[in-house]
């Protein structure tokens, strides 16, 4: 089986579900549900951080990455989560440069929540349509004039770049990536295994405040 290597970026104060949601989806995929216990996922997963050592989430979870920026092998898919820690990472040259370098090699570049702000700051969303957490839509619009911010979509696909709304939307984003590689049937089976409703609608699920987008 040819497996696609998925790298998920970690940093202090990363939102837990932003990275755990996609991790669960990619690890739960099976091309043949009848062989779920016998065959592995067609995706190989790596948690990647700038440096070795544990990463701490806002709730206190401690996570040990599999690789660092300098030791990470070649990736096929790169997922950039969000969280309060993105505010600090926006000013981290090492993070932004690593994202630029990896963008040049991956087939699919994806973000969850305010992970899109990191992609925008790295210049990787210019000329594209994108979205982020509903609280940060105006921030994205004002920060990146070259990006068309989509206020009404849950997940935005623009070529090989896939951005999603906040936190739980990362699950939907990952399912769309699964469908890209293995078809909707496999993606739906994955969602069913997780007892998660497959995203038949792409409308944003949280109503926006009256002034959002103005």
Automatic annotation (TrEMBL):
Organism: Oryzomonas japonica
GO terms, biological process: regulation of DNA-templated transcription
InterPro entries: Class_I_gatase-like (IPR029062), DJ-1/PfpI (IPR002818), INH-QAR (IPR052158)
Lineage, highest ranks first: Bacteria, Pseudomonadati, Thermodesulfobacteriota, Desulfuromonadia, Geobacterales
Name of the protein described by the UniProt record: DJ-1/PfpI family protein
Coiled coil segments of this chain: none
Superkingdom assignment: Bacteria
Residue ranges occupied by any DJ-1/PfpI domain in the UniProt entry: 4-179
């Amino acid at each position: 089986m040819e497996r696609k290597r998925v790298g998920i970026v970690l940093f202090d104060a990363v939102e837990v579900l932003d990275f755990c949601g996609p991790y669960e989806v990619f690890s739960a995929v099976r091309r043949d549900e009848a062989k779920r216990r016998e065959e592995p996922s067609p995706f190989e997963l790596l948690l990647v951080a700038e440096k070795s050592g544990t990463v701490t989430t806002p709730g206190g979870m401690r996570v040990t990455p599999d690789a660092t920026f300098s030791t990470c092998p070649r990736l096929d898919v790169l997922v950039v989560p969000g969280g309060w820690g993105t505010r600090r990472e926006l000013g981290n040259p090492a993070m932004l440069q690593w994202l630029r370098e990896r963008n040049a090699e991956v087939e699919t570049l994806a973000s969850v929540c305010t992970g899109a702000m990191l992609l925008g700051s790295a210049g990787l969303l210019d000329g594209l349509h994108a979205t982020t957490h509903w609280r940060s839509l105006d921030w994205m619009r004002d920060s990146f004039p070259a990006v068309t911010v989509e206020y009404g979509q849950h997940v935005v696909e623009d070529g090989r770049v896939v951005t999603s709304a906040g936190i739980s939307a990362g699950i939907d984003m990952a399912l769309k990536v699964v469908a890209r590689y293995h078809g909707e049937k496999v993606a739906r089976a994955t969602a069913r295994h997780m007892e998660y409703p497959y995203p038949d609608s792409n409308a944003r699920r949280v109503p926006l405040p009256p002034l959002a987008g103005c």
